[in-house]
Amino acid sequence: MALKEHYKTTVVPALKNQFGYTNVHAVPTITKVTLNVGLGKGLKDAKFLETAESTLRRIAGQAPVKTKARISISNFKIREGMVVGMKVTLRGKRMWDFLEKLVKVSIPRTRDFRGLPVNGFDGQGNYTLGFKEHIAFPEIKSDEIEVIHGLQVTINTTAKSKPEALSLLRTLGMPFEEKT
User: Fold this and answer.
1) Beta strands 30-38 and 83-90: pairing type?
2) Would you state the pLDDT for residue 48?
3) Between 129 and 147, whose confidence is greater?
4) What is the mean pLDDT of the segment spanning 152-175?
C-alpha cells in the first residue's frame, strides 16, 4: 500500500482518536520534504560540487538549487555569493514516494541503525535527520562513488507541537528510538 493511502486510511483515524480532532483537515499532514547537502570542505572543489549535484538529482528525481552565502566569513574563507550548498524541495507525489523509500529502504540500510533520534524536532512540528553517508539511498551505487558526503532531510508538517509531529511520523512508519 502506498504511503499516502496508508496516511488516509490508518494515520488520520488514529490521530483523530489520539488528539481528539473533530475535523479531518485539522489532522497534521506533511507539507514538504527538503533535502540539503552542505559543501563544507568541498567549497573549492568543482568535482565535489558536481558529485553533490548528481547525487541529489538521483535521490530526489529533480534538479537541485544551489544555495549561496549571504555574507562573507573570512575565517571560513567564504565570500558573499559563493555556492555553499545545494537543496531540493519535494512536494506532492514525489514527496510521498520519497518518504516511502526513506522509511522502507534507506533508513534500514543505514549502518549501525538503532532508531531515529527523537531530538530532531523543532518547536513547530518539523523533523530533521542527517545521514553521514549518502550511500544509504538505493539510487547510489557504491562502486560508482568517488566522494562520500552527508545529507540532511527535513520533513515539514502542519503539526503544532512535538508530540503531534512525533505521533504523525511514528504512525507513518518512521522507526524512532525507544526511550530506555
Assistant:
1) antiparallel
2) 75
3) 129
4) 87
Q: Which CATH class is domain 29-171?
A: alpha beta
Across the range 88-102, mean pLDDT stands at: 88
Residue ranges of the domains in the chain? Answer: 29-171
Res 179: pLDDT: 64
Q: Give me the pLDDT at residue 88, please.
A: 92
| Rg of the chain, C-alpha, whole Å | 18
Read off the pTM: 0.83
> At a CB cut-off of 8 Å and minimum separation 6, what does 144 contact?
none
Q: 3-state secondary structure string, the chain?
A: CCHHHHHHHHHHHHHHHHHCCCCHHHCCCEEEEEEEEECHHHCCCHHHHHHHHHHHHHHHCCCCEEEECCCCEHHHCECCCCEEEEEEEECHHHHHHHHHHHHHHHCCCCCCCCCECHHHECCCCCEEEEECCHHHCCCCCHHHCCCCCCEEEEEEECCCCHHHHHHHHHHCCCCECCCC
